[in-house]
């Protein structure tokens, strides 16, 4: 008989209300207050599982060794099936309430000793992980006033409000109508999801989970979690050939051709960085992190730490507008009308406000999808350094050493690429500009590959009872391509399979796709797999659909 007592839903709710990160795993209650600051995957990955049955997420993302370590964090058991709670981090008022609690503690003179007490009491500051350099914290009254459209720097009794009452009322009405229109569009997509997929009742979803766990065992029995190192040997030869072509063309002063080969080298080698980021090469966190950092930071100038911090969350809350940082791109892009409600990002602790820039840019977003993808690498440089300079990069506990390693590698990249190559080797400014732009434009292929599998898929939630496997298949699509073209896509063509089994090395994903197809047919969960051209069409259609919603909404407001 188990020595752990049964905890009721009320007990779990009490733990969550006290700010304690409790997670359900195989019927056990894990209290991760002593571990959350040490979690190599970051705090947010845990925060999004608070109060939820995270059995599948934990099994899929962790090795047996890591799972064994979690047993020491057990504090009780619950009766299954467990009815998931809504994690506090997903509440629109979470950061407001957090700031109020902090202010109250400081007023009581507990601020300077609070963190130590919370560690001993195994509760944590569930919001500190979301503070990012460059993002202004939304605090108390200012946040409430901004959410109603009142600028934070205007006093509550400002004479300007009396003078401009009619203008303010019109803007407030416009905002309210946008909010309602977005809700209606979300509901329409939600109804389509309910219609096209199995019911989200507990019994149906548990049957899907049972099949998914059996599928995971089949992946293991077929050795799909084992890395094919021979395939990586061939991969390495291709990388070396591209790099040699870049070097040779640079030597004979074919600068534009050389830049094209360098861009292709970057595009291809980042596939291996993606594998390493998911521990799909050696399975060892340290080794795979070093491999990923060498490729991404040293060879490409991109922060693998930034990528992992956002990508870990993206895999757990895929295509959720308020939580998935990979789709939070307004005012340049919006793949969902949800952003018309001006949502608060739980990742950035920053409110994405739908303003005049969105009204101006979103209606034409499909026209600059490809131009922006061609320039995306420059943005990734910026985001990488922003991450390394932020508190988030310093909150990795056992993985603290990754930050100085990344900074060192990225400095080496800029010394070699920026100084030795661009500045010292290329003779003129025109050659330098052309080389940099060409090499970066070529990586458009990678950026399109990254966005294809999600930007054309649904974003509306079907409710807290929807299982992990159904949500992943419903919000992710695969690219259908012949076997001989796998090298071009580098495993990113199997994103739906990858989201179900992220630690499976990419050379095994084609076999995994066959098994996932059978799983989808057996369970009735919708599985989307389109050709590369049709995937592009789906993304453009989604962008145009949201653009039309904005145009129609604007026209409706003008008429009224």
TrEMBL record:
Ranges annotated as spanning the membrane: 254-273, 285-307, 367-388, 400-421, 433-452
CDD domains, A to Z: Delta6-FADS-like (cd03506)
InterPro entries: Cyt_B5-like_heme/steroid-bd, Cyt_B5-like_heme/steroid_sf, FA_desaturase_dom, Fatty_acid_desaturase
Domain Cytochrome b5 heme-binding: 4-79
MF GO annotations: metal ion binding; oxidoreductase activity, acting on paired donors, with oxidation of a pair of donors resulting in the reduction of molecular oxygen to two molecules of water
Alphabetized PANTHER family for the sequence: DELTA 8-(E)-SPHINGOLIPID DESATURASE, FATTY ACID DESATURASE 2
Membrane topology: Multi-pass membrane protein
Pathway(s) of this molecule: Lipid metabolism; sphingolipid metabolism; Sphingolipid metabolism
Species this chain originates from: Ampelomyces quisqualis (Powdery mildew agent)
UniProt KW keywords: Heme, Iron, Lipid metabolism, Membrane, Metal-binding, Oxidoreductase, Sphingolipid metabolism, Transmembrane, Transmembrane helix
Protein name per Swiss-Prot or TrEMBL: Delta 8-(E)-sphingolipid desaturase
